[in-house]
Specification:
The chain has 221 residues and is of the alpha+beta class. Strands 3, 4, 5, 6, 7 and 8 form a six-stranded antiparallel sheet that branches. Strands 1-2 form a two-stranded antiparallel ribbon. It is globular. The two termini are 33 Å apart.
Length: 221
């Protein structure tokens, strides 16, 4: 640093890498299902600075660049909102300004708090907070409902079932969001907003956030 002081290397670490994998192939047309999954642990820095959702998603995008063109169907993140503050995110204006209006879409969203019923008890507060926080980016959430169905937007991989991490779900929030484009950037932005809204509503456990839409081709090369 210019003032002659230095931070220890570990102070810049936002997460501790644990496991990762994916359904990859040398032939892109054969890459289906869960193309990438990653399990990490929060570092001490992140526990103080805040959940590094945007940074984590950006890191995953760099990994996907090695594949090339990805048909992104959806994104799922389990975030420990009780372990670190969920900070207000910066706006998406620089990204969305260049987006094609033809790519506007409606994206179904699930917010599952597992055995903690705080999410479903405070669904109105969570959706109202999301609507207010995302208004600047012209992102609009629709009405919400509580579901106890076993039919999810995504099914987890074997050995990574949500119940193993969050206990038996007592219900989840189902809603939808209107966005000008569906991408890793917007997905990470939305997940960070959802985590913050859940935290403001009093959630102190983990939440599983799932966004899924019809296939849209992303050229990440």
């Amino acid at each position: 640093m210019s003032d002659g002081t230095y931070l220890p290397q570990e102070s810049a670490v936002l997460w501790d890498m644990e496991e990762a994998g994916g359904n990859w192939s040398d032939e892109l047309e054969h890459v289906v299902g869960n193309v990438l999954w990653v399990q990490v642990g929060l570092s001490n820095t992140a526990k103080q600075a805040g959940l590094p959702v945007a940074q984590f998603v950006a890191c995953n995008e760099k990994v996907l660049e090695r594949i090339g063109v990805v048909d992104l169907t959806g994104v799922q993140l389990m975030l420990p909102v009780g372990k670190a503050p969920a900070r207000r995110t910066v706006g998406l204006d620089p990204i969305l300004a260049a987006s094609d209006p033809a790519n506007s879409t409606i994206v179904p969203v699930e917010i599952d708090g597992g055995e903690d019923d705080t999410c479903i008890r405070n669904v109105t507060q969570i959706i109202d907070e999301l609507t207010t926080a995302c208004a600047r980016d012209e992102i609009r959430f629709g009405s919400a409902a509580i579901s106890q169905s076993s039919s999810y937007l995504f099914n987890e991989l074997a050995g990574m079932d949500r119940t193993a991490w969050m206990g038996q779900s007592v219900g989840r929030i189902e809603t939808q969001v209107s966005v000008r484009e569906f991408s890793l950037d917007t997905s990470g932005h939305l997940a960070a907003h959802i985590a913050r809204s859940c935290q403001l509503a009093g959630v102190t456990s983990s939440v599983l956030i799932t966004l899924r839409r019809d296939v849209v081709a992303l050229d990440l090369r």
